[in-house]
Amino acid sequence: MLRALRVVIVVLGLVAGVVVTAPAAAAGQPDRTISWRSCAPADPVLQCGTLTVPLDWDQPRGKQIDLAVMRRLASDPGHRIGSMMVDPGGPGESGLTLVRESGADLEAWTDGRFDIVGWDPRGTNASSPVRCFTSSAEEARFWAGVGIPTTRAESQAYARKVTELAQRCGKVSGDLLDHISTADTARDLEALRVAVGDPKLTYTGLSYGSMIGQTYAALFPDRIRAMMLDGLVDPVPTTRSAEARTRNDVASTDESFAEFQRQCQAAGPAGCALAGHGVTVQQRVAGLLAAARKAPIPAPHADPPGALSYGDLLLSTFNPLRSPPGWPQFAKDLDAAAAGDASALETVARGMRSPEAYTAATTSAAISCLDGPASRPVSSWPSTVPTFTDSSSLWGPVLGWWLWAPCAANWPGRTDDAYRGPWTSTTTAPILLVNSRYDPATGYPNAVAAEKRFRNVSLVVMNGGGHPTYQQASACVDAARVRYLTDLVLPPKGTVCRPDEPAF
After folding, report:
1. Coil, strand, or helix at residue 234?
2. Where is the Peptidase S33 tripeptidyl aminopeptidase-like C-terminal domain (predicted)?
3. What ranges do the domains of the chain cover?
């Protein structure tokens, strides 16, 4: 199972190394190379480098930006097939972090026959990141005390806050904001394929990484060797508008939360802390949500002590619901809150309200706003946010305010280069899709829709929760990955895998 991914700013310590020259570039474009260097003398397996690409792909010889790249060398070089590019999602997660912390796990998906190559996409982390503040202290002051609004006064204040945020981002980041769409990143991925010398692309895209993959397949359908997409984003609502994207992003969250409660109820008091208590798990959770709506729940053991608001309760579910191995602890924390002590949940929520978390959300919004701009202004929040809540009472308000509101607040980024369809793929390369049946962030219906759009494709459904599927170990899914990525053999249509162990 891949280790947990974190959004970080990566500082690369580089020492002398080898230069890899790209094959001849397309007419009118300069050759692009990567100088690979050891990331650290003590770890010869990891190599770091920089790929220089145009800020605007319409002007390949114009202003350039640097993309930070990292690769883990194949452990079976005698049977090496090539490079496998990987993206962990977001938008905005770090491909460098993915390779550095989870490269060995990714290598297991390929039997050690590929170099595992990750990069920080443009506008993120170590690759010309979006910036909205001139210092971390300024950023911390801006976000101090801000949470997910749940009252009219809080919502009005948040709308003003994101309007100011958009202005700050435009002032600090300038024209970078016009050139960080997913289509721009897909073109970068093509340049990366050329730079590492692979005749065809082998790619694994996780979560939003599947959006990059589907965009690449639409732009470069004849340049794919293998593409595995795990946790499918639906590009149609994603690029239609910020409103459609947000509703789709949360459409399966409540079903996933219901599955968490169902499995907890089935496990009983011996297996799940929420079970028992003279009521069903569903009733206990409903009671907790109702209590938090009415008044904050004490969090006496948080540091410092405080109280869990309804908005913080929603935030506190955001990461635990994605990872079934953590469901037993999540159930304990919910149960403690239901009993009157929300310290554990409040501690989690505070981490989600950190400046780093807001930076990640802003970066995600900056990319998404180009792909599918808002069709309604942020002043429409009284009628718009409820439509997100209708899609998911749990995460609708969270993603509505985090990701829709900045787009709706006169976001400064503009582009004519974003790709918005058609999405029916004409690639002849076999494509492997993988999705959890109860994925809270990229719902199963997204995978079904993608299966219909690709010509030569197989969908593997992991009959469990988690986002993406690696959150719950499954030897069945792993075997399908290895056979596909190494031998290009798709599993049979209709393949359903089970987790190796139950969540409870």
Report:
1. coil
2. 403-497
3. 17-128+179-230+422-497
Q: Rounded distance, CA 359 to CA 134, Å?
A: 13
CB 240, CB 424: distance < 8 Å: no
Return the structure tokens found at 416.
């004519």
The whole-angstrom separation of Cα 466 and Cα 442 is 10
- Helix segments in 415-499, DSSP class H: 444-453, 475-487
Cα angle value 390/396/288 (rounded, 5°): 90
- The rounded distance, in Å, linking the Cα atoms of 469 and 393 is 24
Query: Percentages helix, strand, coil for the chain, rounded to the nearest 5?
Result: 45, 15, 40
Q: Assess contact for 422 and 219: CB atoms under 8 A.
A: no
Q: Specify whether the CB–CB gap between 197 and 79 falls below 8 A.
A: no
- What gap in Å lies between CA 64 and CA 353, rounded to an integer? 34
Identify whether the C-beta of residue 107 lies closer than 8 Å to the C-beta of residue 80. Answer: no
Q: Which of 69, 77, 75 is nearest to 106 (CA)?
A: 75
CB-CB contact of 162 with 168 (8 Å): no
**79-109 in b/e burial notation, b at 16+ Cβ within 10 A?**
eebbbbbbbbbbbbbbbbbbbbbbbeebbeb
Neighbours of 406 (CB within 10 A): 27
Token pair, residue 362, equals: 């802003």
What letter represents residue 3's amino acid? R
For residue 50 the two structure tokens come to 């920089």
Host H or E run for residue 267:
helix 253-267
The correct answer on CATH 3.40.50.1820 for the domain covering 17-128+179-230+422-497 is: yes
pLDDT in tens, 246-301: 999 999 999 999 999 999 999 999 999 999 999 999 999 999 999 999 999 999 99
Q: What is the pTM of this model?
A: 0.93
- Does the bond joining 430 to the residue before it have cis omega, within 30 degrees of 0? no
Per-residue pLDDT reduced to its tens digit, 103-120: 999 999 999 999 999 999
**Mean pLDDT over all residues of the chain?**
92
